[in-house]
Amino acid sequence: MSRKSKYATGNIVVSILLALGGIIMVAPLVWMLSTSLKTKESVFALPPEWIPRPAQWENYLRVWEAGPLASGIANSMIVSFSVTIIGTIASTMAAFAFAKLRLPGKNAIFIGLLAGLMIPMPTLLIPQFIMFSTIGWVDTLLPLIIPGLFGNIMMIFFLRQYLASTPDSVIEAAKIDGAGYVRIFTTMILPLIRPAIAAQFILWFMAVWNDYIGPVIYLNSPEKMTLQLVIANFNAAYAIQTDYPLIMTASVIALVPIFAIFVAFQRQIIESVALTGTKG
Q1: What distance in Å separates the CA atoms of residue 84 and residue 125, rounded to the nearest whole number?
Q2: Which of 19, 53, 88, 150 has the most crowded Cβ, counting Cβ within 10 A?
Q3: Is the pTM of this model over 0.85?
Q4: Cα(first)–Cα(last) distance of the chain, in Å?
Q5: Are 73 and 138 in contact (CB under 8 A)?
Q6: Per residue in 71-105, is it b (16+ CB within 10 Å) or e — as a string?
């Protein structure tokens, strides 16, 4: 077999493996969407129906009356967008400071932040709950919002490493020309790391949007619950009635904001991966 034939065969094998992997990953999402358009009886039909006939579009009207879905979406958006937008700004500025500014003890501070990642989250839940309960924040969205406004350690670490490859001479030249740190940050650093910010923003938004542990600890009132708690209550209430289409309908609605954010920033994500590979 010639070298060209081996190369073509390898491409075919890789393409088949990638296609199989894509099908395996997409199949649960397709099944979720399909189930949301079925009746309760057709969910258990054999062989399984991937394309419901007829499609039960009224499930998407019925779900709004089954529970506080609208307030859950509103609360999740308030938490997710406030944390990720303000927290991303704080994380970006912190990464710039750790990477390029001359600060006494900045490496020790940075190592201390990374050491905080080594502490298991369950060990922090009780102290945090006691602290937020003492100041009266239980059953409010504040415990889910305020800590994230100060930044995300993983984002700071990622952006700092991303900035480490930027020559210091560029920043020094800008300082010689009279540019201050604010101007350097806004006109030079932000455009440079925009793809990396977009990639980290999406990952953080997904984590905050899908968070279940925090809301289940701090939120009690139905009108204060986030979307994930509402869906969990749907699962507890309607799984007994085998009303899986209603549960899947709520899950599809919960997926829409994440999908929209990903589509909006997909170009930046591709640029981030491409630039990271080039730098490596």
Answers
A1: 21
A2: 88
A3: no
A4: 34
A5: no
A6: bbbebbeebbebbbeebbebbbbbbbbbbbeeeee
